[in-house]
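We modelled the chain as a single entity of 382 amino acids. Its sequence is:
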Amino acid sequence: MKYLRLPFIVINVLTVLLMWVAALCGTMSPHVVGWLSLGGYVFPLLFMVCVAFMLFWVFVKKRFLLISFIGLVAVYKPALTYCPLNTASSEHSPIGGDGGGPLTILTFNACDWGNDKSMPDSTLTKADKKQKMISQLIEMDADILFMQEATLRGNEEALSRHYQYCDTLKGIRENSVCLTLYSKYPIKRKEKIPLQSTAAAGAFWLDIDGREVIALDMHLESMHLSMNDRKRFSTMVHGEDKNRDSIRSTSQTIVGKIYQATRKRADQAEQVADFITRHSDMPLLLCGDFNDLPISYTHDTILKALNTGKSSLGGNEGDAEGHDCYTATAMGPGYTFKRFGMRVRIDNIMCSRHFTPINCHIVKNITLSDHLPLICQLAFSR
């Protein structure tokens, strides 16, 4: 019996080691660790295998539970970043606004108002889809609406009536993504962050009840997966493609494109982080489509930049740090992109230490885009 257990022990130990490598390298620059920077994509699978081993050892030999237990405890931080387990909202102070309550912000990649070619067919016309999407966004009644891939074409009157202030930014290329900010608070000025490629990032200075706040909207490098790539991936993950050569070809194509995009996003994330660091003394709200996972160099670099300006005066260290608002307040992994067999959280709301996130969740009833909106309530920290 002892010898029968040995292969399972070896596999369990190897799984733990691979999980540690995935967690560590997943947040390192792809220019340093190369393909290992994609560790965030396999971390959840390795984590679940370790959990399965724990259940296995319960019935076989309880003392070997320690292998997976030690492995899981060592990666609890990235695990909770990927799948937060919050149960209660943080205390907050009023922030002004119509009801004197917290500030509500929403980020949404509108996928060209639902007209992207990757979207499934719909009985609605392009104009009807756009107006329905606009009506749904108005119902959410966010104080600040961060939008990506939402080019203004002059038929957004309803949004213009709901929001007194609106401005746009594009990247440095003519065909770059359009960023649009709707706000109930005055927009004083804006500044483009010159990202390469078709990615875009920009800052808007807002006056929120006498406080100057930077609202940073962004859309980082996409995966550049064609419709054919997405369909091939979908048939592969759903088990419809049985051909080994086809599966190998699809896997190599998808992984190759993801890796190349990851390298570009690393540079873009560093540019965004540099902007954040230069404005670390100011309250900052950051929203957008990162096109990257919670366990990634992109996510880690930007969040660390929000922490660089943390105060050493008053409160504990945790109170002075920036936040990934979903990780800080939500429950469960959450997916903002669920198409073609892909389920990932690639859209984010973050804030500097000047804010306390209260409640962040995914809006599941706005489905005309390939992304789901993310909405969050925040208050100025005491």
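As a brief sanity check on the tokenised model: Residues 90-99, 310-319 have pLDDT under 50 and may be disordered. The chain has twelve helices and 14 strands.
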